[in-house]
Amino acid sequence: MQALDFALFGLLNAAPTVAPWTLRFAEFASDLLPALLTLAVGACALFSRRWRYALFTLLVSVLAVWLVVHAIRTLAPIPRPAFYGLGIQWVAQGVRPGFPSLHAAGTFAAAFSLWCLPSRGPMHAALLVAALVAWSRVFLGLHFPSDILGAVMLGALVSILVERGVSRPLSLLVRGAFVGRRRARPVAPTLNPD
Question: What does the radius of gyration of the chain's CA atoms come to, in whole angstroms?
């Protein structure tokens, strides 16, 4: 399995002859696209309750992914390509653990958090953004393809668990409290004309 991972990494990692604009685009995808995705969801959340629900799910999912990734890297520190002297590391990362990719896991968690919206268009666009982030991490020599695959699965799993286990119950609780508060209001007596 490791040989396949090394071979795929060799195919996807940017060669020394790559056009400079591709490196700049990969760095943009890696560094800024995750934040731009979150900002876009936040902007939509200003105008829609469903987008606020999605934003809450996104934020909690990304936080949960961050915690899980750091726990995995502490318990099972799987090295990055630089540790093996493979490819070219276009952005300095050192030899710290790289499985799973935090950038990819967080962005995929954010993208999958949008599945609760009535239209699938936003989630598909966000998945495209997440795929670009994932590609950029391998292209820049920072992660193996297996780091990305693990990140995709982790992001999907965490976003589903957060939506089902945190967002939905809290939403029902808040909605129930709001309805209960509306019912508890005293009703002004009406004059009976009889």
Answer: 22
